[in-house]
């Protein structure tokens, strides 16, 4: 069987062969030693089926495949279709070999990936241009059928009302001076012609701006970097600000009730000559009177950490109505006993004994059950608020009816980013986004400067309405005692149809793992069990993060350009089963 479909002897072709085999079966590029082994075998004439079988024999293949069908998995990755009966009959190695030899499949891959298998840094202009060339080749190889006449382009300085009235396309879009639009954009918009608004990605002089699902908060904060195509009938109801026409258009869309059907069509289609766009901060007013907030802080000893945390809460926070609930987990140090006694004298503070082994989830569940506030904030004792209005900012978002959970910008002691939201996806499940970036960096089109929807936020500082916490069942305290229960909570918030929001305007320092280090060898088995539970429970939702562009992959907190887009996730879903 392995004698058919032998490949050419060219080393360059074989390098691409090896890459595609690994991508189709393992969803990764081969390492240097693996490359050499397979290049040698293919050079000796062993054939692509041999290579496919050898990769499929790796234990890693079975682990990655899980319960999925092995034939449908490779044909979906290669050509976005289920496997045929003939492919199942001929066997997996021959099926993979035929897919690798297909010109349309080969056009989706580039040997450049072997040089940078983890992805491309979008901040480097030269490597970005190489990625963009590959991106266009991939689009050409996978393009939907043409959709001519779908779009009418309107110059930004034209009479908007007259131009919309004269438009013939189903959608209209603004084009500003100096902007260039890729000619295949209509084909990619075509499959979404039933939507009200279509948004693409774009690039500027400082690099690409790649966004995820439609986010009304982001739309209000910053002008769009990509194309904004609006259904002609809806566009006729909009009025433009001549100083920021495209931005005024998306702001009106974000404010419409009921909300229109807005879809993101990922891909860099619009190219603009300008630099970083300006952004604005949107303030959300608190109800009058402001809701009582209960801040829940589990702690054990470390009076130095707890004291600094409480000093900022009680004496440098301008929120008018708060209570602090300290859950003391069997502290034994005299300094901690003295501090807790001092705190107990403050009418805003309650100290509650919390005996037993450390269970972060159970501790916080108990704290919420004792809370008097309408809003609860889960807070680590190794955090220190930096600005007086941090709590006002969190509560302003937490009381919004479409928001279920809110996270803060957490910084390391050196001022770099520790937490700016978490990506829920297969690369590392939940790595913190933009870790170690400067706090005010304009990276990724200003993502660190704007309120935005994210896949998850850390429980080190998490605010939500108490009714939402109770509605979704609180924290999973049996299966997720220490790690991932905050992620699980956010996934249940999303399953309830609410958004998880991150704000850069609530800033705290966070000495991650200062109280309890979860990275030690002793902790690893528990962390792996909890990770496995999260995958079993949520399935697809922890594989495909809708709030990270499918063209980005989160590598240890650094969003890098992916060589091909991963499937787009859904903003919310229910757990399988």
From TrEMBL:
Residues 294-472 form the Glycosyltransferase 2-like domain. GO terms for molecular function: transferase activity. Residues 64-89 are annotated as: Disordered. SUPFAM superfamilies: Nucleotide-diphospho-sugar transferases (SSF53448). It holds the Pfam family Glycos_transf_2. Keywords: Transferase. InterPro entries: Glyco_trans_2-like, Nucleotide-diphossugar_trans. Residues 64-79 have a biased composition (Basic and acidic residues). This is Glycosyltransferase.
């Amino acid at each position: 069987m392995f004698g058919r479909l032998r490949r050419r002897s060219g080393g360059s072709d074989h390098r691409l062969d090896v890459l595609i085999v690994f991508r189709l079966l393992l969803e990764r590029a081969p390492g240097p030693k693996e490359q050499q082994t397979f290049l040698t075998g293919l050079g000796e004439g062993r054939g692509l089926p041999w290579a496919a079988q050898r990769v499929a024999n790796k234990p890693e293949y079975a682990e990655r495949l899980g319960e999925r069908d092995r034939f449908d998995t490779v044909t979906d990755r290669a050509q976005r279709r289920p496997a045929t009966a003939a492919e199942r009959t001929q066997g997996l190695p021959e099926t993979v070999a035929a897919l690798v030899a297909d010109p349309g499949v080969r056009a989706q891959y580039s040997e450049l990936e072997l040089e940078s298998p983890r992805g491309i840094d979008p901040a480097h202009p030269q490597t970005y241009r190489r990625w963009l060339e590959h991106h266009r080749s991939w689009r050409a190889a996978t393009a939907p059928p043409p959709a001519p006449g779908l779009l009418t382009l309107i110059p930004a300085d034209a009479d908007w009302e007259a131009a919309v009235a004269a438009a013939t396309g189903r959608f209209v879009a603004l084009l500003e001076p100096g902007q260039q639009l890729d000619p295949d954009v209509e084909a990619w918009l075509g499959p979404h012609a039933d939507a009200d608004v279509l948004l693409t990605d774009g690039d500027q002089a400082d690099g690409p701006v790649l966004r995820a699902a439609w986010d009304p908060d982001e739309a209000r904060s910053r002008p769009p970097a990509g194309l904004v195509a609006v259904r002609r009938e809806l566009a006729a109801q909009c009025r433009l600000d001549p100083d920021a026409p495209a931005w005024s258009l998306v702001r009106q869309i974000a404010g419409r009730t009921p909300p229109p059907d807005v879809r993101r069509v990922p891909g860099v289609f619009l190219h603009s000559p300008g630099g970083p766009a300006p952004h604005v901060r949107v303030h959300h007013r608190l109800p009058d009177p402001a809701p009582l907030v209960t801040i829940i802080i589990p702690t054990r000893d470390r009076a130095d950490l707890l004291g600094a945390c409480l000093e900022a809460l009680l004496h440098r926070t301008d929120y008018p109505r708060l209570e602090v609930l300290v859950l003391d987990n069997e502290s034994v140090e005299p300094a901690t006993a003295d501090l807790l006694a001092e705190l107990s004298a403050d009418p805003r503070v309650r100290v509650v004994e919390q005996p037993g082994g450390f269970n972060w989830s159970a501790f916080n569940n108990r704290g919420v059950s004792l809370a008097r506030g309408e809003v609860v904030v889960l807070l680590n004792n190794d955090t220190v608020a930096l600005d007086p209005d941090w709590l006002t900012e969190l509560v302003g978002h937490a009381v919004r009816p479409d928001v279920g959970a809110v996270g803060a910008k957490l910084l390391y002691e050196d001022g770099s980013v520790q937490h700016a939201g978490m990506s829920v996806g297969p690369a590392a499940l939940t790595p913190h986004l933009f870790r170690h970036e400067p706090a005010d960096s304009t990276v990724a089109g200003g993502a660190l400067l704007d309120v935005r929807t994210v896949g998850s936020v850390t429980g080190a500082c998490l605010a939500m309405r108490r009714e939402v916490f109770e509605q979704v069942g609180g924290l999973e305290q049996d299966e997720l005692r220490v790690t991932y229960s905050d992620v699980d909570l956010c996934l249940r918030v999303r399953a309830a149809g609410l958004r998880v929001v991150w704000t850069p305007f609530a800033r705290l320092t966070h000495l991650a793992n200062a109280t309890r280090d979860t990275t030690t060898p002793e902790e690893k088995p528990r962390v792996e069990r909890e990770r496995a539970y999260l995958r079993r429970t949520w399935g697809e939702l922890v594989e495909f993060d809708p709030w990270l562009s499918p063209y980005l992959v989160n590598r240890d907190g650094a969003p890098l350009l992916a060589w091909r887009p991963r499937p787009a996730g859904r903003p919310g879903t229910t757990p399988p089963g």
